[in-house]
Design a protein that fits this description.
This protein is an alpha+beta fold. The chain has 2 helices and 5 strands, in the order ββαβαββ. It has a single domain, classed as Beta-grasp domain (Ubiquitin-like (UB roll), Roll), CATH 3.10.20.30.
């Protein structure tokens, strides 16, 4: 089982292959935003990788990050990442202080849209 370390929160074992956005909510107990429901549209589920950033990304993630002008190295969409190895992340898009009514609807178990890896 991979270990996800969330800066300031701790380290948590998560099921292999689980979407990072869901692991952050379920196993890590964080208030990570995901306003679009995890379909790579809004960028509210952004995290910053401190270590263990996956080498590949989905075409949907690449496209939405470019469209939204997100160019910071290590900033990725947690809805488009499977927990396949140990990772350390910094939460940069949280419910606390966001002014939103909630974190967003529950994301499905599978990466959506179906991944085209680049």
């Amino acid at each position: 089982m991979p270990t996800i370390t969330v800066e300031g929160k701790g380290s948590f074992e998560v099921p292999a292959g689980k979407r990072l956005v869901n692991a952050l909510a379920d196993e890590c107990g964080t208030d990570q935003l995901h306003a679009c429901g995890g379909v790579a549209r809004c960028t509210t589920c952004r995290v910053e990788f401190v270590a263990g950033e996956p080498a590949r990304m989905t075409q949907a993630e690449k496209d939405v990050l470019a469209a939204k002008g997100v160019t910071t190295p290590g900033v990725r969409l947690s809805c488009q990442i499977a927990c396949d190895s140990d990772m350390t992340v910094r939460l940069i898009s949280r419910f606390e202080g966001s002014g939103r009514k909630d974190c967003g609807g529950r994301c499905g178990d599978a990466i959506d849209p179906p991944p085209d890896w680049v």
